[in-house]
Every structure is written in structure tokens, then in C-alpha cells.
């Protein structure tokens, strides 16, 4: 259980009004895929992501117009009652954009910099320094985010040369992972020399393969007490991306590593961007690190459940809880810990229903057409007829009011 897992002790960083680090919950982050120059579309998507639970939202800042749009986006969010921290994602020309539009730096809650995409040689140091100096001037935290696909080539070349002189050379993958950590830690040291404090830095070292991600985060966790942002970059689409992200992040989180997460899903055509936030919440809730909404326990179905009635009821209950939670969480403290069981036959139905806070055991094939309801382990009523779903939802509402009402 999560309450027996000791999270790695990290420095605390404030990003806007959101605290990050081991004294705070593991935070969920997402990123827009709108054109940042489109103020209305970007503002709308940030609100959509925040509404489903994203606690920080990153936006691309890649052009002069995008930089100029940032203050207006933040102002619009405030106008609509949103204080979600907005993070600026800078590559290649970030130093120039922030120098030309300092109000962009002032409006953002955090800057995200990839050392491998800042420049080359002396220009790299100058341009990285320019970004850090803007962060220091406006007292903004920075995520130093190293990515496998855009690794600092000078660091990589240096480590490959050193590896050739080892008695037993490391594999190329090991050198790549080492280069990511070296790039991150050298960038941290340089940023500190320019005045950025430990409580203004977050690190990430993202790759796209599960085992590599687990290994690189295990390594860097032993080398720094800065907060770590986790994410399997370019995870992919649909179930492939969900499974890969869940598998990799769960292993790392179970070891007490990680202070923020993002599930980098490629949306299916026409699918909302919000899916990545919902998956992130499900990962944290499934592991027991955080509770967001009541859990619905439902059996997968078998030959005893030839009707799809229990599946439809489980879907209706889950939909009802998702829709009502924004209201419930403000008036019913603790309701997110509730477990509701919707079971399809007599094999596990009564047992699972008794173990849940409230549960219903629907009749399977050949069973009597009745559905006993259990509350806190005790059978309270037996439902029958054509309105079982509506009656059960009403019983759930009454249970919540009675149990979690102040």
C-alpha cells in the first residue's frame, strides 16, 4: 500500500500556487496541443485540462506572437476563475523570445528548458545563461528537462570518448543514460552559479522505453534531492501508450521516486486532450498515492452474466460519480475514498458488495431476478423490477449524504 512507501525526500518548489516535492502530493501535469498564438483556443484547452484534474499545464512558446500571447492567456484564465499554473516550454530560441518579451516570463509560473536544445558551444552557455537570468530576475522556477531524442551532443560525444578508454566499456544505451544525467546535473550546477536556488529547480530525464526510463530515474534519484518530474516521452496512442506509461511510472513511483507526472499520450483522431490527465489520475489512484473519485469495482463478466445489464449499470454509476464529484468534493469530505461494487452474479457478487462501502449484486444467468444491496457489509434492501439502476443510484446518493455529510 502507498502508506508504507517512503517517498524520496526532496526540496520543496512552489510553482504558482502549487507546491511540488515530497511534502506535497504527487502532482499531475499536462500540455496543450493548440497553437499558443491562438489565445482563445489555448485558454479553452487549459481550462478543459484543469477541469479534469491537471494541476499544472505546459504550453509551447516558440514564436514572438506566442510569447506575446502568454500574458493574455494567463489573464483570461484568471478572468474565468482559473489559477492553474501555466508553464512555458522553450526550445532553440527561448532566450531571444524572453529577452524581447519579458512580460511573458513575468506571466508564466515556470520555465521549461531542454539543455540539448539551447544551442551549441559557447552559444549554448550564453543562451542557457540568458534563460536562467530571466528566471532569476522574475523569481520563476525552472524545469531542466533532458530528453533522449534531443540530448546535448557535446556531453554525449565526451562520454563516448571516455568510454573508449574504459577497461570494460559500457553499452551505448548505458552511455546514453549516463549522458542524460550528466547533462542534467551540469546544467543544475551552472544554473546555481547564475543565482537559481535549489527550491527553484525541478529535473526530468525522459526516454521512450520503459526499462530505460526506470533505470535512468533510479540513477538520478541517488544523485540529487531536487524534485523529479516523471513521464514516458512519446508513449504512443491508445492502449499502447496507456499501458506503457502505466507500467513504467508505476515501477518508479512504487520506489518512492517522483514528484510530478505526465502521461504523454498521442490523442486518437477526434479524442480529447484530457485523456492523458484521466490516465495520470488513474495511475496514482490505483497505486493508492492519491484519491480523486470513488472507485467502482465491477466484474469482467463470464458465461454466468450473459446479460450486459451489470456492465451498463457499472458504466452509469461511474459516469454519475464522475459528473457529480466536482460538487460532492466540496460538500462531502472524504467521499473520494468510497468504494462502490457493481457485480454480475452470485459467485463473487455478495462478497465484493460486502467489502465495498456500498454494493449491489445483480442476478446472473439462471439466478432469481433480484439484486441485494449491501451497505458497510450489511444487506439493507433487495431491488427487483425494471428500475434497479435508478433505485440503486438513489441509494448511493442517500448513503453519501448520510456518511460524508457534515
From TrEMBL:
Protein keywords: 4Fe-4S, Iron, Iron-sulfur, Isoprene biosynthesis, Metal-binding, Oxidoreductase
Reactions listed under catalytic activity: (2E)-4-hydroxy-3-methylbut-2-enyl diphosphate + oxidized [flavodoxin] + H2O + 2 H(+) = 2-C-methyl-D-erythritol 2,4-cyclic diphosphate + reduced [flavodoxin]
Recorded superkingdom: Bacteria
One Pfam family this sequence matches: GcpE
Note accompanying the cofactor annotation: Binds 1 [4Fe-4S] cluster.
Residue span, IspG C-terminal domain: 296-397
Keyword RNA-binding part of the UniProt annotation: no
Necessary cofactors: [4Fe-4S] cluster
Pathway(s) this gene product operates in, as recorded in its UniProt entry: Isoprenoid biosynthesis; isopentenyl diphosphate biosynthesis via DXP pathway; isopentenyl diphosphate from 1-deoxy-D-xylulose 5-phosphate: step 5/6
E.C. number(s) listed in UniProt: 1.17.7.3
Domain IspG TIM-barrel: 10-280
The protein's enzyme class: oxidoreductase
Binding site for [4Fe-4S] cluster: 299, 302, 345, 352
Functional description taken from the UniProt entry: Converts 2C-methyl-D-erythritol 2,4-cyclodiphosphate (ME-2,4cPP) into 1-hydroxy-2-methyl-2-(E)-butenyl 4-diphosphate.
Family per similarity comment: Belongs to the IspG family.
Listed NCBIfam families: ispG_gcpE, PRK00366.1
Name of protein: 4-hydroxy-3-methylbut-2-en-1-yl diphosphate synthase (flavodoxin)
Gene source species: Wohlfahrtiimonas larvae
